[in-house]
Amino acid sequence: MKSSKKLLVVGVLASTLGLAGLVPSAYFWHQTRQITEAAVASSPTQTVTTPTVVTAPKIITGKPVRLLIPSLGMDLSVADGVYDPRNGQWTLSTSQVHYALMTVQPNDKQGNTLIYGHYRPEVFAALHTIQPGATAQVVTANGYTFTYTFKNSTVVNPADTSILSYEGRPMLTLQTCTGAFMQNRQLFSFDLVGIKQ
After folding, report:
1. What is the pLDDT of residues 150-187, one digit of tens each?
2. Class of the 64-196 domain?
3. Can you tell me the distance from the alpha carbon of 17 to that of 20, in angstroms, rounded to the nearest whole number?
4. Closest by alpha carbon to 138, among 149, 150, 148, 146?
5. Most-buried pick from 6, 29, 112, 117 (CB within 10 A)?
6. Distant-in-sequence, close-in-space partners of 89: CB < 8 Å, separation ≥ 6
7. What is the three-class DSSP state of 42?
């Protein structure tokens, strides 16, 4: 009996001590929670924005390496062409045409691609016989084929460089000499009609 009373007293004492420790813990937990909630409520809300990425439109372009005009039986290799302002001369060849490097490469956006060559049987002598609607194809080093349709031709003085400042829809201009003494330049204008790879 005495041991039962002792156990009961010890149990009551332990329960009382446990409750005594629980009350401060509960109080501390409640205070911490209120402080945390107040801090969260008073802090400014931050909005995370994702930057907008703008990608430039892809331009289909390439350096010309071959010119074909099927209706005239022309299949010519294209070399780089440079103008030398010191002597007023262009790079020229007796067997191939030249892409004027200061003009745009064939592309699907804008500008004029100028390819020029001698008025010789091996180069552009037959160009003056081309008919409206005839096609010209420019093959590029990276494997594109740009197809153009012949629109018209004009004769200009060699000092006329207006063709170099063209900025409109993509076009191709072929240039060769003309006149009794080959003193003028004949320009053949073509509009872009298609691209394939």
Report:
1. 999 999 998 888 888 899 999 999 999 998 899 999 99
2. mainly beta
3. 5
4. 146
5. 117
6. 83
7. helix
